[in-house]
Amino acid sequence: MQSAAVSVVATIGYQGATIAGVLQALAEARIELLVDVRAVAGSRRPGFSKTPLAANLRGAGIDYLHLRGLGTPALGRAAARAGRHSEMRAIFRKHLDRQLARAELDALADIVQGGRRVCLLCFEADPAHCHRSLVAKALGELVPIEVRHL
User: Fold this and answer.
1) What is the pTM of this model?
2) Are 10 and 118 in contact (CB under 8 A)?
């Protein structure tokens, strides 16, 4: 019996980064699809709001997909901003039980199984303090993946 192939799923946080730096990291990792897992795809950082981000990615030959349902709810974002990371994780784990979050996680699993090189994007630089690590963990429960933090 053959085991399923393990796909690499990257994650990246843009806190303190430039759009040029993020694009370079994505290119070096040969990413084909950036999956934005922010609940609100707006940013004060130049180039990281949804429309300019998608345009910058398109120019680099990378597709963009916003999965809002895999974003952290407002209470979880407030907890993260206050440095209450365990509280944010608990809120997000509960959020993952919601129908939209499950549907989007299943859609992401299908994309990964299709063989595309995917990277999950959120703001927080440290993946240990960001819900994108929880998204990756939940994804790994659906399909065999190796997570690489860029």
Assistant:
1) 0.93
2) yes
pLDDT in tens, 79-135: 999 999 999 999 999 999 999 999 999 999 999 999 999 999 999 999 999 999 999
Contacts of 145 (CB under 8 A, 6+ apart): 6, 7, 8, 9, 112, 136, 139
* 23 and 56 Cβ atoms separated by less than 8 Å: yes
Domain ranges (residues) in the chain? 7-149
* CATH class held by domain 7-149: alpha beta
